[in-house]
Amino acid sequence: VKAYLYDKKAKPSPLVLSEVDAPRPAGGQVLVEIRAASVNAAEWRSMQLGIVPKSRIYGADISGAVAEVGLGVKTLKVGDEVVGDLSGSGSGAFAEYAAVPESALTRKPASLSHETCAAFPMAAVTALQALRDAGGVGPGMRVLVNGASGGVGSFAVQLAKHWGAEVVGVCGPGNAERVKARGADAVIDYRSEGLDSRGGAYDRILAVHGDQPLSRYKRLLAPGGRCVIVGGSLSQVFRGIFFGPLLSLGSRKLKTLTARPSPADLSFVLGLAAEGKIAADIEKVWDFTELPAALDYVRSGHARGKQVIRIR
Ligand SMILES: NC(=O)c1ccc[n+]([C@@H]2O[C@H](COP(=O)([O-])OP(=O)(O)OC[C@H]3O[C@@H](n4cnc5c(N)ncnc54)[C@H](OP(=O)(O)O)[C@@H]3O)[C@@H](O)[C@H]2O)c1
After folding, report:
1. Ligand 1, atom 42: nearest CA belongs to which residue?
2. Which residue has its alpha carbon closest to ligand 1 atom 39?
3. 19, 2 contact by CB (below 8 A)
4. pLDDT in single tens digits along all 312 residues of the chain
5. Does the beta carbon of 130 lie inside 6 Å of ligand 1?
6. Are the C-beta atoms of 83 and 35 separated by less than 8 Å?
7. Is the minimum distance from the CB of 151 to ligand 1 under 6 angstroms?
8. What distance in Å separates the CA atoms of residue 26 and residue 102, rounded to the nearest whole number?
């Protein structure tokens, strides 16, 4: 079967389309025939940090159908359509087949396509855990999403609106209409406008992208406010981890999120999508042979919404 094997030295891309033996499902695992996957910033960031999956096959988000079940599998059978985030179980989405623990998968809503479902796992669950668990976002809260036009940001804007918040999205000049179309009440262009004039304006901040001093985020928070650092530059993330707790003395808090794959949370966001309450913001569906180009595009830092890969 075909899979992209990582080879750091390969040119022009470290992702090399290869023929490999089909994986076999171990106990508690199922073999998934992957119909669609999607690319996350996490993949190139792992490459940058030298974190390589044991199988050498990157990729987290999958939507597909069960092709074989291993011993002891209780809830799934051949033919069931499933969605999952493989980042907690060895990765391997950039392939035609993956052996996946039954416990890492959730059922695909029948009304949504594989391409739509593949856009959700990591980005939507990260947005959910940032807003609901770390942020406690609720009705009437003023929420700033810095980095509103990418994968995580596009879901964050919609989920915050779904819970009745007033949402301001920060993005580049070409993405204002896209972010408003997802429901943002207002948009700030990070290239032409500063954030500094809005001190104390927000109850919650989601720092998804960018590289801002933590003191600036703190100034933007209203008393009792919380800033959740999800991503951005490496220095942004490390500053959040090391200095966030120090700057959280007083009522304004800064915390760093480490999202965890959760089939229950994935099922929740897919349910909202099936009810038409949120939608995947898919910029492009790429062919499997274009995966290295899709990864390069996401690596540029300016991809819009999600990049989905059609596999079979
Ligand atoms: N904490 C966790 O557990 C966790 C989980 C998943 C992801 N992450 C991290 O979260 C971040 C977002 O991931 P993603 O998959 O959503 O990324 P993505 O889809 O690649 O994000 C691309 C978007 O970021 C915007 N952007 C780039 N520079 C910006 C800036 N300076 N200010 C505001 N927006 C900017 C771009 O808009 P413009 O073109 O308009 O600039 C583009 O639309 C990454 O750093 C990722 O590593 C963390």
Report:
1. 302
2. 302
3. yes
4. 999 999 999 999 999 999 999 999 999 999 999 999 999 999 999 999 999 999 999 999 999 999 999 999 999 999 999 999 999 999 999 999 999 999 999 999 999 999 999 999 999 999 999 999 999 999 999 999 999 999 999 999 999 999 999 999 999 989 999 999 999 999 999 988 878 778 789 999 999 999 999 999 999 999 999 999 999 999 999 999 999 999 999 999 999 999 999 999 999 999 999 999 999 999 999 999 999 999 999 999 999 999 999 998
5. no
6. no
7. yes
8. 10
Which one-letter amino acid corresponds to residue 263?
P
